[in-house]
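Working notes for the structural subgroup meeting. M.R. asked for a predicted model of this chain before we commit to crystallization trials. I am recording the input and output together here so anyone reviewing the notebook later can reproduce the run.

Input as submitted:
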Amino acid sequence: MRKPFTLIPKQTTPRGTLMLGALAVCLIAAFVAGACGDKTPKTSDANAAEVTTPSPETPGVPTTTEPAVTGPVSFEDAQTAFKDKRYDDALRLFTTYTTEQPDNVWGYYMLGLSAWKAGDRDRAVEALTLALGKDSTHVKSHLNLSRVLIERGQAEQALPHVEAALRIDSTSSEGFRLLGRVKDELGDPAGAIEQFKRALALDPCDAWAMNNLAFVYVNQSRFEEALGPLARATEIDSTVAQFHNNLGLALERTGRVVQAVDAYRAALAIDSTYQKASVNLARVEAVHQDSSVAPVDLGGLARSFVEQVKQR
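Returned structure, recorded in token form:
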């Protein structure tokens, strides 16, 4: 679980907005939900997204009541199930595959990702640890094991795996992005900001690094600074509902109510079931826009952020 924090509103909060006390804490809580995800995977990169509900089953036991797969299983068939988001099927298939091919590190790696996506973080840790036992230089296993450990609230245990991955590949923007997450979890926001910026220096189009950087700014009540990276993130990938929701929160917190409404609506247009965006929209629609607060040029902020990244 992410560490608790308290947000103290600035005294310069514009008139006409409901941004004090408990509401401020509510806003940050809404931001957290979409703050620490990771870049959408390429077809060839099974970089699992965040799983929100761990499975209650014991590690090492399939998370489905369906019978175990018998007979030969090909890596391709198991991977197809994963790509099709049939994660329980993928878990059963990779379980059988690793039994038949116990020396293939990729089998254990994919078993770990399948378990993670099926909701069994404990078994994911077990499988990814086995993968690293087969090959201690397997960068993807280090990185994804660190993700699962972060989700289990074990950032200290995740840190050595991120550092190991970066020793193997010091040019990995993904590695520095994860290092930023770990530092933030461990209570080092300045270190987290530095690592997210290093990730962006290596990959100026890492939209999740921008989102995570903005999260740290919001956590520190630096709402104006959060606008640039979020505006740029939504330009790079306009299909991520969390980016629009988080942009809406930063806009709302700086008094740009009308623009916040647009951002929340954009999030819901992508995912109509996105409850936090729906709650945020309902709240902000009841707030009157302070006429003294000028709208912000999001395109201009995105361009300015691009120049900041270039300067690194």
